[in-house]
Task: inverse folding
């Protein structure tokens, strides 16, 4: 018995055929004999159905990824989401903005951006100069980008001062990474 390739006779073929009810119009369903009138050629072939489902799944995956909303995480001494920049980075996801206030931040340890595509954004005064200050108090490196940060990792409106590095990057240490910097001022850092 040769098998008709358009006729479902295996469980997978039947599932594929039943999965696409868009081939049946609503008008045809009103008739009591509607299902009998369907020809086997109206069933989709399993290969076509797999292609359709795969394309749909990939499209939906891309759609849901592209519609993700970035969070803004605030950091300040009192009344914000976090009081530590490192805690905010730990809580962040790709695309998030960590918003600093117009104050001085002395973390007590390096600020590691952990390879995340996030924005660490300070504030500016009327002149456009940064008013969010990262201060290493001469004891440690300030910012570290060593885990593959890309141009999606953004440092903006920061005054980076008094960072100390043992031979490398007192204010900002970058290795195997390429973060983006905008309106960042480096003052009194040593390495």
Result:
């Amino acid at each position: 018995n040769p098998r008709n390739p358009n006729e479902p006779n295996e469980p997978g073929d039947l599932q594929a055929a039943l999965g696409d009810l868009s081939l049946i119009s609503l008008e045809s369903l009103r008739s009591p004999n509607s299902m009998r009138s369907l020809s086997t050629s109206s069933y989709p072939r399993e290969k076509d159905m797999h292609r359709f489902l795969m394309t749909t799944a990939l499209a939906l995956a891309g759609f849901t990824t592209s519609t993700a909303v970035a969070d803004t995480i605030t950091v300040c001494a009192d009344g914000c989401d976090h009081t530590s920049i490192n805690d905010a980075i730990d809580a962040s996801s790709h695309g998030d903005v960590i918003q600093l206030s117009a104050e001085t931040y002395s973390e007590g340890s390096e600020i590691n951006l952990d390879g995340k595509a996030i924005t660490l954004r300070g504030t500016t005064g009327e002149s456009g100069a940064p008013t969010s200050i990262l201060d290493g108090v001469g004891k440690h490196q300030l910012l570290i980008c060593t885990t593959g940060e890309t141009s999606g990792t953004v440092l903006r409106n920061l005054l980076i001062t008094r960072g100390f590095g043992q031979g490398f990057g007192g204010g900002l240490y970058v290795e195997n990474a390429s973060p983006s910097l905008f309106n960042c001022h480096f003052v009194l850092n040593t390495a």
User: Anything to note?
Assistant: The chain has a mean pLDDT of 79. The longest helix spans residues 46-66.
